[in-house]
Amino acid sequence: MDRVLIFDTTLRDGEQTPGVALNAEEKVQIARQLARLGVDVIEAGFPAASPGDWEAVRRVATEVQGPVIAALARATPGDIERAWEALRGSPRPRIHTFLATSDIHLKYKLQMSREEVLERVREMVAYARNLCDDVEFSPEDASRSDPEFLYRVIEAAIRAGATTINIPDTVGYALPEEFGALIRGILEHVPGTERVVISAHCHNDLGLATANSLAAIQAGARQVECTINGIGERAGNASLEEIVMALYTRRKVLRVTTGIRFAEIYRTSRMVASYTGVSVQPNKAIVGANAFAHESGIHQDGVLKNPLTYEIMDPKLIGLDRSMLVLGKHSGRHALRKRLEEMGYQLTSEELERVFASFKALADRKKEVTEADLEALISDEISQVTEGYHLEHVQVCCGNMIPTATIRIRGPEGQAITETAIGNGPVDAVYQAITRVVGLPNRLVEFSVKAVTGGLDAVGEVTIRIEMEDGNGHPRVFSGYGASTDIIVASARAYMSALNKALTARRVAALELLPSLSPVAAA
Ligand code: KIV
Ligand code: ZN
Fold first, then answer.
1. Are 445 and 467 in contact (CB under 8 A)?
2. 91 φ, ψ to 5°?
3. Does the N-terminal or the C-terminal CB of the chain have fewer CB atoms within 10 Å?
4. Average pLDDT for residues 192-200, to the nearest whole number?
5. Which of 201, 203, 234 to mutate to test the pocket of ligand 1 (most atoms within 8 A of CB)?
């Protein structure tokens, strides 16, 4: 069977989800997990977009081994050079450059003629190819472009040295039959396609991203671009887990394979949800909480008699079997490190020390520490940015009285600050007290709390989003995550993580003027 390459863009297009901003450490942790999952390519970011993105791509390129590491660049020398500088530490770098080809984009966004676009593609693909042997070119908005012009652009990109041609359905407009026909047309009409990989990049505006990606594969595409949990711009990108499980479950019809280790799917989904703050809808295919839940009595009866009656996939296949006890209260650092390494985490000694302390505290309170609990502790640890403010103690008084919170925070210069506040409820009181110390006015736009496992002693995880001014006069959303057996402490930690991310973003904005992202910046 043919192999389809899985190009994961969670860290680039996925990060373009409104309100998602991952720091470099979070990106590295996710990239390591993507490598364990077995993706072929990781698109780590868009280095010209911000100094933070550049640094995150550089770290992923140097610290994550296995997959090809790609970075996005507009078709300009400046962007391509920034991408290359960030990527050059990787043993397997790829520059991914793009330029729109639809008349709508040419007229209103780029203000370029078709001939100018053709010339720019020739020049910029050749420019990228001089720096890097692996170059991907995407004609943005390909599905709404005139096919004859699209063929000419693709031919020019191949002649200039592109090794992968990616066909984006940028606005999620195509229908599966049309998208399949577009890929078939390219393979039939463009000279040189036998020398390159044809790829599909589908957005989910009409809920068709997975269907369109499968149609592209059936038509001959051998790379698909997708994200974990389907996160991404607007309605998101094609979901990695949906595509690979469809390819596997319906392999007799689709007749292609991937290199994905299915058992890592669920863990990767959980990690991405907690770091990005974008929860998975319960009825999401494959990884949603209800994806394998059977509510009707008839279904339950059938599944008990034989799971094949109502289950087309074994939930264990995707790693949904994580209730086992992994460590107990007598386990030491060595056992914890070993277990975390088996789960794919590589922590520094200081991080391990902190996770070990939380693990001990958890093992004292909770009879069984499961893999899901450990994942929550790690996500909590990684979400607490090392610079900035650190929460040391939280105490609340609540009941049918005025809720009051007292907190102690360690400030950026190491000073201990204690503050007390009242609020409408215990979480509000804690947030008021923290805001008095950190002093960043904001609006809480989302708050969700959930138990990691069953049982009254379960770890609670809190995901929040706050909106504030970003330092450049624009509103921006920051997400935060916290986990603890005490949901008030988890809420406080989630708030601290969001505030520290906001502080970092403001510092970057103040120190370095971010380049403006014009569609095709001047060379
Ligand atoms: O959706 C899109 O067109 C993109 C390109 C940059 C590949 O994300
Ligand atoms: Zn996209």
1. yes
2. -70, -20
3. N
4. 98
5. 201
Residue that has been written with the tokens 């969670």 in this structure: 10
If DSSP codes are grouped into helix, strand and coil, which group holds residue 190?
Answer: coil
Q: Which ligand is closest in space to the CA of residue 105?
A: 1
Rounded mean pLDDT, 326-347: 83
Per-residue pLDDT, 297: 79
pLDDT of residue 521: 41
pLDDT band at 370 (very low <50, low <70, confident <90, very high): confident
Given this model, what pLDDT does residue 335 score? 85
Nearest CA to ligand 1 atom 3: 170
Which ligand 1 atom is nearest residue 13's CA? Answer: 8
Domain boundary among 276, 311, 342: 276
Atom of ligand 1 lying closest to residue 72 CA:
6
372, 427: one domain: no
Would you give the DSSP letter of residue 237?
Answer: B
Residue 523 has pLDDT above 50, yes or no: no
Q: Clarify whether residues 298 and 338 are in a common domain.
A: no
Q: Is 138 a pocket residue for ligand 1 (Cβ < 6 Å)?
A: yes
Cα(198)–Cα(200) distance, rounded to whole angstroms? 7
- The answer on 390 and 376 residing in a single domain is no
Q: Do residues 34 and 97 share a domain?
A: yes
pLDDT at residue 518, as a whole number: 55
Nearest CA to ligand 1 atom 5: 140
- Ligand 1 pocket test, candidate residues 17, 72, 173, most atoms within 8 A of CB: 72
Considering the domain architecture, whether residues 164 and 75 belong to the same structural domain is answered as yes
461: CATH: 3.30.160.270
Classify residue 458 by its DSSP letter.
Answer: P
Cα 178 to ligand 2 centre (Å): 18
Q: What is the largest CA-CA distance in the chain?
A: 76
| Region of residue 333 (phi > 0: left; psi between -120 and 50: alpha; otherwise: beta) | alpha
Instruction: Compute, in angstroms, the gap from residue 170 CA to the centroid of ligand 2.
Output: 5
pLDDT in tens, 412-449: 889 999 999 999 999 999 999 999 999 889 999 999 99
Domain ranges, residue 54: 2-276
Q: pLDDT category, 58, cuts 50, 70, 90?
A: very high
Q: Cβ contacts of residue 374 below 8 Å, gap of 6+?
A: 326, 327, 339, 340, 343, 359
Indicate if the pLDDT at residue 323 is higher than 60.
no
Q: Cα(208)–Cα(232) distance, rounded to whole angstroms?
A: 14
* pTM (two decimals): 0.87
Q: How far is the CA of 5 from the centre of ligand 2 (A)?
A: 17
Look up tokens 């070990």; give the residue. 356
Q: How confident is the model at residue 213 (pLDDT cuts 50, 70, 90)?
A: very high
The C-alpha atoms of residue 495 and residue 498 are separated, in whole angstroms, by 5
Question: Whose CA is closest to atom 2 on ligand 1?
Answer: 170
User: For ligand 1, is residue 101 a contact (CB within 6 Å)?
Assistant: no
241 occurs within a structural domain: yes
Is residue 45 scored above 60 in pLDDT?
A: yes
Q: Is the pLDDT of residue 325 over 80?
A: no
Q: Is 140 in the pocket of ligand 1 (CB under 6 A)?
A: yes
